[in-house]
Each structure stands twice: as C-alpha cells, then as structure tokens.
Amino acid sequence: MSRVTLQGIPVSAGISVGKAFFMNRRSFENVPRHTVPESLVSAEQARLDLAFRNVHDELTQARDKIPTELADHGTIIDSHIMISRDPKLLARSKEIVRDTNITAEWALEKAVREVERKFEAIDDLYLRERISDIRLVAQRIIKKLLGQHHEEEVVGVSNRVVLMAHDLTPADTIGLDISKIMSLATVEGGKTSHTGILARSLQIPAMVGVTDLEKYVNDGDLVIIDGLKGKLIVNPEEHELELYSDLKYQFENYHKSIIRECQLPGETIDGYRINVFANVELFEELPAVLENGAEGVGLYRTEYSFLSRADLPGEDELTDEYVQMAEMLAPRKVVFRSLDLGADKLAKVFGDLREPNPALGLRAIRFSMRHRDLFRQQLKAVLRASVTGNVALMFPMISGINEIHEAKGVLREAQAELEKEGHAYDADMPVGIMVELPSTVFIADVLAHEVDFFSVGTNDLIQYSLGIDRLNRHVSYLYQPLHPAVIRSIKYVVDAGHQAGIEVSVCGELASDPYCVPILLGMGVDSISITPQAIPGIKRIIRQTTMEDCKNLLREVQELFQVSAINHTVRDTIFRRFPEELTFYASILDNEELPA
Ligand code: PEP
Ligand code: MG
Fold first, then answer.
1. Which ligand is the nearest neighbour of the Cα of 506?
2. Fewer CB within 10 Å: N-end or C-end of the chain?
C-alpha cells in the first residue's frame, strides 16, 4: 500500500478520487507466472480448452455479423478463427502445463514464444509477419484466462470507478458506460489522441501516457487523478486527500461561475466578434453543446457513430440522425465532416486494415473515396438534412485540388440520385475542407477558390507538419502547438482564405487552449470550434481581452523561433491576465520538456 506519484499527459480537466479498475493491461507483460500443484494440472488444461473454445465462438460471431458486401474485410477475422481452432497450439500449451506444472496462461505464452522462434527462421517476410496474428489471438485467449474486463463488463461495477487501461481506442471509449466511470488514465496516448478528446466531451477528468500505470496500480487501489496537471497519486496520504478535495471544490465553483455567462457572445472588449462553435462526436452531446453556450456545431465527427456497431448504418438511418441534429440546432449552424475513418478510428465491419503507417494510410477522404458507395450514401444523408436546418459539409484531410474535385464529384452523384428519387436538398449548402496537411497549407491560396470555407484541423496539421504521431506518448514532448511552423501555417491559411473572401475556422484542440486562443484571435480567425466543455472558459477569455492585445502578442510571438521562448512568452502574458482560467485548464502546451 505504498504511496506513488505518476506523471502523465493531462487531456481532460478535473479532479477525481476513487478506486482503480483495470479494463485492460498489456497482455503478455502481465501474464502471472505461477506453478500449480499436480492435482490442478488437468484443471489448468481444461481452462485452456474452454478459453480457446470461447474465443473461437466470439470470433465466429463477429465474422457472422459482417455484411456480405463487405466480406473482403472478414479475411482477417477468418485467419484469427483458424488460429483459435489450431489444434497444435492448444495441444502444445496443454503439454507444457503437463510437463512443467505451470498455469494455463503462462503455458500458452510459452507455446507462442516457441512458434515465434520457428517463424523467425523463415525467409518469407509475409509468413514471418503472420506471427503477429498468432500473438493477437493468443493475447485474446490469455485475456479470457485472466478474466480481464471488457468494456461491457464495466456495467457490472456497482460504484463509480477510476478506469485504468493500457490503451483505449475511440471505439472502446464510446462503448463505456459513463455512469460508472469518474475518470480515466491510460499508458498509451498523446495530447490530442481521440480518447482524450472524447473524455473531454464526456466531462470526465483524464490523463494519458502514464508510463508506469500497470506497474504501480492495482485493481481497488485508491487513486487521485489530477486531470489539470497530469498527476496520478496512488494510495494518497491524508493531507493529499484534503488538498485535492479542496481543489476539486474550487474547480467546481470556477465552473459554475463561467457557466453563468456562457451564453454571451464571444466578443472582445473592443468589439471584435469570433464565433465559438462546438466539436461533437456523438448525438448525445447536443444538450451539453447548448448548455455550454455554443453558437452551433463547427465540427461533427460523423465517424464516431460508426465505431460502436458491428454493421453499417443505411442512408435513411443516417438521414434521421443528421436531420434531428440540424433541427435541434437550427437556426444555429452544424458542419458535418464526412467520414474520417481509418488510423485509430476503425469501424468494426472493416476489421483492422493492418497498415504499416496508419496515420499516413487509408484514412479520412482517402478511405471514403475507396468506399465510394458508403461515401455517397453519407453525402446523400447530409444533403437531405440540409433542407431542415443550417447545414454545411466539409471533407477531412484533403491534400490537393484533385481530391476536392473527386469529392465534389461524389457530391454531385449524390445530388443526382436524390433528384431522381424526389428528395429535396439545398443546392447552395456550403462545402469546405479541413486543412490538416502541409501540402494543403502551401496551396491554400489556390484551394480557397475551390471551396466555401476552410477549417484548420490543428491536431493533424501539427502531427503531419512536425512528423509527430499524435497517439505516441514517446514523442509527445515534441508535439508543439506553438512551433513557429505551426503558427506560420495557420496565419498563412487565414490570410489566403480572407484574400479569397472565404471564412476560416480552427477546430483542433489548439483552439480550446486558453494560451493559444489569443494568438488565433490576433490572426483574425473567424470562428473556432472546440470541445463543448471548454466554451465557457474560452468565451470568458475572449470577452476579457482586446484585439489590440492579441495582435501585439501575435507580433511578439512571430519574432521568436524557439518553442520554449514562445511558450514562455505566451504563458507569461496570458497567465498574468487570466490566472484563474489557467489554474483550471489542462493545457496542450504542458509537458513540452524532454521525457526523463
Ligand atoms: C484535427 O485534426 O485537428 C481535427 C479536428 O480532426 P480530428 O481530431 O478528428 O482528427
Ligand atoms: Mg483531423
């Protein structure tokens, strides 16, 4: 029961104190290594039989749910099913139990290691890589043997817990029963990983990148999660519990005070107006959007409603969802982003794409163009919703002019189909693109004549400009939102957009950071779209500043070229003005120092 403090990356503000509950751990590293008495050998072998059988059944059920038109994507599951019924792996594991009297999970791990050694000797790269499938299936079986929790098992927890996991995919996170979870911490993840974004939307304190989480925290340990500073205290002392309950109280009071004025417009003291919209992942967030004073939805991440299901929604189902959304928000605007599937956002029906570099692979608009029917169906649903409210559409991860033409080509096909079917749509619905790639930045002046608006997705723009995987905690210290290249890129896009007479919005996490917002204001950004919970605090900052101050800060920052100097200047200036806001924020500028 010793006290330990762990550091991680704060991704969702707030404090929580509660009991730890592990949803998953890194499988092989945590396999318990015990021997068993002779009398239990056959019981261990029977556990192996059962776990193999259960996993085989689970995989078969998952395979059966794949629609026939997507049968191609079932081949990975098929290969996993074959592995799960491979008599050799099971027989060898049971043999090891018999010969060495060790537990079922340890024996299976050993059996897999033997196969690994055999595979290493094979020349054929393709065959050699198949070991990763064996490992995946074995991990699943080991998880079964260890009785580890799956997301659905959180339902069985009676009190709210602090959820711990090695990693949570966006699909895992939306599958959680949020009424049972007071906060969460994971080993994997970076500053703008989607799990963190979702935690903010769900208003639960969260931290990611907690390297030693699995080493020091056990189920049932009392832990404090400080989602403001990214600190996790295991088995805290009495005075720490008092300190944090005090901080929690102050945080909640601060929150109440900003909520009172959140419906006021985002307008600076000297009358400059910036629209403050919300980023939304799930339909259920809409009440929070309105309560927090959003002037509309500037980014609806439509792919999230594809993540938690085993099938694909049809056009009518999507239309219902989008119409409801548009109607609920009208006359406020809602910007539907077409599917941004791929990378860490994998829909179950498509299985794991198994790409060597998922962030550089088949994601976003590329994925949609590959699945053109699905894309057209989605665009038809957005178009049908366009007559029921104030609707706009944008395409993610556009890299150049051809992609815009291709995407618009599918939009025209969708319009033609709707005309044939007699469905109404708004032919003037604004169509924009997300600016998330350096290539797009450099030709923003050209692209601005092709679309109705730009929305700068800084999460990806930073990832691709600085070459930093946004999910990777090892390089998280290099994920620098105020890198001079990032500042110049955004400024260039804003100027190019304005020159062509189109609006420019910023919708990445940078726009919900109190340190960064004054800089965006100084650039003349027309709107920001941010996590709903950040709106009240950010609006307060906007309302208490002047455009002149923001322009001065931008000028000062543009003359600096070291990120540390920029961060220092920004922190200093903003903190002097808004000490309270900054006490209660998990800034993405934090943790920029080199890892120990
Ligand atoms: C972004 O990249 O900044 C963005 C808003 O899109 P997402 O976080 O969904 O990739
Ligand atoms: Mg993005």
1. 1
2. C
pLDDT band at 596 (very low <50, low <70, confident <90, very high): very low
* CA distance linking residue 8 with residue 190, whole number of Å: 9
**Nearest atom within ligand 1 for CA of residue 340:** 9
Tokens describing residue 254 = 């601060």
Q: Is the C-beta atom of 459 inside 6 A of ligand 1?
A: yes
pLDDT of residue 492: 98
CA of 244 to the centre of ligand 1 (A): 32
Residue with tokens 């944090």: 244
CB 421 within 8 A of CB 385: no
- Quote the ligand 2 centre to 133 CA distance (angstroms): 29
- Residues annotated as part of the active site: 194, 507
Q: Which atom of ligand 1 is closest in space to residue 455's alpha carbon?
A: 5
Q: Judge whether residue 81 has pLDDT over 90.
A: no
Q: What tens digit of pLDDT does each residue of 277-292 get?
A: 999 998 888 988 999 9
Residue 337 annotated as binding site: yes
pTM, to two decimals: 0.77
Predicted confidence (pLDDT) per residue in 23-66, tens digit: 766 656 667 778 888 888 999 999 999 999 988 888 787 677 65
Pocket lining: 289 vs ligand 1, CB cutoff 6 Å: no
Q: What is the pLDDT of residue 219?
A: 81
Instruction: Report percent pLDDT > 70 for the chain.
Output: 91
The rounded distance, in Å, linking the Cα atoms of 467 and 289 is: 33
- How would you label 343-357 residue by residue, b for 16+ Cβ within 10 Å and e otherwise? bbbbbbbbbebeeee
One DSSP character per residue, 119-158 reads HHT---HHHHHTHHHHHHHHHHHHHHHHTPPPGGGGGG-S
Does 390 belong to an annotated binding site? no
Q: Which residue minimizes the CA distance to atom 3 of ligand 1?
A: 457
Ligand nearest to the CA of 458: 1
If residue 162 lies in a helix (H) or strand (E), which one and from where to where? strand 161-165
Contacts of 180 (CB under 8 A, 6+ apart): 154, 155, 157, 160, 161
Among the bound ligands, name the one nearest to the CA of residue 197. 1
Contact 410, 351 (CB under 8 A): no
CA distances 333 to 328, 425, 510, 538, Å, are 10, 16, 21, 19
Rounded Cα gap, residues 82 and 444, in angstroms: 49
What is the number of the ligand 1 atom nearest to the C-alpha of 529? 5
591 has a pLDDT exceeding 80: no
Q: How confident is the model at residue 407 (pLDDT cuts 50, 70, 90)?
A: very high
- Residue 470 annotated as part of some ligand binding site: yes
What distance in angstroms lies between residue 194's CA and the mean position of ligand 2's atoms? 10
Q: Is the CB of 436 under 6 A from ligand 1?
A: yes
Rounded-to-integer distance, Cα 224 and Cα 240, Å: 9
The structural domains of the chain, ordered by start, are: 4-253 (3.50.30.10), 262-590 (3.20.20.60)
Tell me the CA–centroid distance for residue 388 and ligand 2, in Å.
27
